[in-house]
Automatic annotation (TrEMBL):
This is RagB/SusD family nutrient uptake outer membrane protein. Keywords: Cell outer membrane, Membrane, Signal. SUPFAM superfamilies: TPR-like (SSF48452). Belongs to the SusD family.
Length: 638
């Protein structure tokens, strides 16, 4: 669905009635005449609905998504020394969440007020409520459309609440638009108990699902609009989040109370929440399949000179994400990902000569590159056939790896004998790069990730680690003097992600079992790996790991981090699992990228030490909001 300029104009007239930047649900000026015109006919009403979508579409900008900027998957190195003084307020400030720079005076990713790469979600919620209150007014709206549009507004309202409660924990529930003549006490809403918030989101999603179409029939006109399948997938994610350790009987929040002394977090973990989540995951998968969802099959585009089976597999794995609107993408946001130039190395001489075409600033830490398995499908530190201790020694590209590592090129041993998802997701010095104008993988002059020792990086537009999130760059993008970016919409939920979510819930309910293995193995099979049991029994130093609940939990968590790497999911997963503190306790390391010799380049250096404490699992409410609304309580530990 394309959001038109005029939509924002029509919706903007109502924004004065929405919660201001500084106050939640503040009293606002009279806008009755404006709303009357907004619902004067079907076209104006639909335009208002599309305005409700506006902030949802803005979430496709990964810089706004803490699941990306605070995941430990990617860091942004430029002007780090200035971030403390700048407060991380720029477009890249969200990356400072990993540097311990979050604060309650001027919070990063402030979605409560809409500052510092946050969005004004309370305004969006109020718009949804206004729409639902007024959609009965235009007489020319067909009954089917009235139901569908109302269901879309309900979904959006539910999702915006979910985004806020995932960030802040207990929040107020804004189920109606507060009248402009409301009393001060009515405006000053209180936070509700956490489970009440989750239950409200699920209830609202259920109300929306019954009146949403299962799939979009006219993609040219409606791509991006919400379907029942999307709503069911979001419901599965919501319930899994509610069942997860961060929110399900977390002892860290046991003493957190509201203004009236009531406990806002559940006191004890409820195992039944995992069963409820499992049922929702299965329902979402069944609905997705019924609507035509299936694993991605490569849709070759452009003039291909030569493509080996190995390259085809890599493009298939990557294409599941970057090939827009393919059947594996259960939910895709329409605006295009605009940061390919941040995500790729300079793989051609033309790109290297024009640093403004390719910035390369999105840097993948060594620790993130090492979560990917060996070719045998087990972690690199578990594979008894893989030289984990010697992984930083130098090795030369050979015939066996020529579709992954440039032949006769010196790189490190850790880049050899890795699983296909490593090569489809991460670029490194010496990595082959199919695309960027070169579509012949039998070309002995394969271009490689040239920001290594042979090509001095620009001091302001450089990659700080020597690893890039290759997955985010379409192979048909060609930067240089005549740059052509092959843009793509941002997928929020993929079928493989739902499979792993379901496997996670099954394991939490019943422990290791054949059904849980089967859903994990579906993901692994597409990645060219043996099943879980086969891989661990044959190659792991810990062959019994999949047979225990804790062991299988670790496997599933790592599998999700690999399969969904760089997709804006890991940061949220690591939070709900209460594992982000562990990930961000390790220094962000990379190669010495400004050194001009092979030996010098391949010396590990620390880019910086991330900082993430217990309080950072939830986001602070801006202190000004606590003053203007004394019924609110600050997020725990802030």
């Amino acid at each position: 669905m394309k959001i038109l300029i005029r939509i924002l104009f029509l919706a903007g007239c109502a924004l004065a009635a929405l919660p201001g930047c500084k106050q939640y649900l503040d009293v606002t000026p009279d806008n009755v005449a404006t709303l009357s015109s907004s619902f004067s006919n079907a076209n104006e009403a639909q335009a208002y609905l599309f305005g409700c979508y506006s902030n949802l579409q803005s979430l496709s900008d990964v810089r706004r998504n803490a699941g990306f900027t605070a995941s430990g998957e990617v860091l942004f190195p430029i002007n780090m020394q200035d971030q403390t003084t700048l407060g991380g307020q720029g477009g890249d400030g969200g990356f400072s969440l990993m540097r311990g720079l979050q604060n309650s005076l001027n919070p990063l990713h402030n979605y409560w007020d809409g500052y510092n790469m946050g969005l004004k979600l309370w305004e969006s919620i109020r718009m949804c409520n206004i729409f639902l209150d007024n959609i009965h007014l235009p007489l020319d709206v067909q009954p089917f459309d009235r139901k569908r549009w109302s269901a879309e507004a309900k979904f959006l309202k539910a999702y915006y609440h979910y985004w806020l409660l995932r960030m802040y924990g207990p929040i107020p529930i804004a189920d109606r638009a507060i009248p402009i003549n409301a009393s001060s006490e009515e405006v000053r809403q209180k936070q509700q108990k956490l489970d009440s918030c989750f239950n409200y989101v699920v209830k609202t999603l259920d109300e929306a699902i019954v009146d949403l179409p299962p799939a979009i029939q006219n993609a040219a006109a409606e791509a991006g609009r919400i379907t029942a399948t999307i709503a069911l997938a979001v419901k599965a994610e919501v319930l899994t989040t509610q069942a997860s350790p961060l929110f399900n009987g977390n002892p860290d929040y046991a003493s957190f109370k509201g203004k009236e002394g009531q406990s806002l977090f559940p006191a004890a973990a409820d195992p039944a929440k995992w069963q409820r989540a499992a049922d929702a995951c299965k329902a979402a998968i069944d609905a997705a399949v019924a609507a035509g969802a299936k694993p991605y099959e490569l849709r070759v585009q452009g003039n291909i000179v030569s493509m080996s089976d190995q390259t085809r597999q890599l493009l298939t794995l990557q294409g599941a994400f970057v090939d827009g609107w393919n059947p594996e993408q259960v939910w895709t946001l329409n605006p295009h990902y605009g940061w390919q130039y941040m995500s790729m190395p300079r793989v051609t001489a033309e790109a290297a000569a024009n640093v403004f075409a390719v910035y390369s600033n999105f840097s993948v830490p060594v620790s993130q590159s090492e979560i990917f398995y060996t070719k045998n499908g087990v972690p690199i530190n578990e594979d008894k056939t893989w030289d984990y201790i010697g992984r930083y020694q130098l090795q030369t590209g050979d015939e066996a790896h020529r579709y992954y590592v440039k032949q006769d090129y010196t790189t490190v041993k850790g880049n050899f004998s890795r699983e296909p998802r490593y090569y489809s997701s991460v670029a490194f010095d010496g990595a082959t790069w199919f695309g960027s104008g070169n579509t012949n993988d039998n070309n002995p002059n394969f271009v490689n990730a040239v920001n290594g020792y042979a090509s001095p990086p620009d001091r302001t537009r450089y990659n700080a680690t020597g690893y890039w999130p290759k997955k985010l760059v379409h192979y048909q993008s060609v930067p240089g003097q005549n740059t052509v970016w092959h843009t793509y919409p941002w997928p929020f939920i993929r079928l493989s992600g739902l499979w792993l979510l379901y496997a996670e819930c099954l394991n939490e309910v019943n422990g290791p079992n054949a059904e849980a293995y089967s859903w994990i193995d579906k993901v692994r099979q597409r990645a060219g790996l043996p099943g879980v049991l086969a891989s661990w029994s044959q190659y792991s130093r810990n062959p019994a790991k999949p047979s225990t609940k804790e062991g299988l939990r670790q496997i599933i968590h790592q599998e999700r981090r690999i399969e969904l790497a760089f997709e804006g999911q890991a940061g949220w997963d690591l939070r709900r699992w209460k594992e982000l503190q562990v990930v961000l306790s390790t220094p962000f390391q990379g190669w010495s990228v400004f050194n001009r010799t092979v030996a010098g380049y391949y010396q590990l250096s620390t880019v910086y030490q991330p900082s993430f404490g217990l309080r950072d699992y939830l986001f602070p409410i801006q202190e000004y909001d606590l003053i203007t609304n004394p019924n609110l309580v600050q997020t725990p530990y802030w």
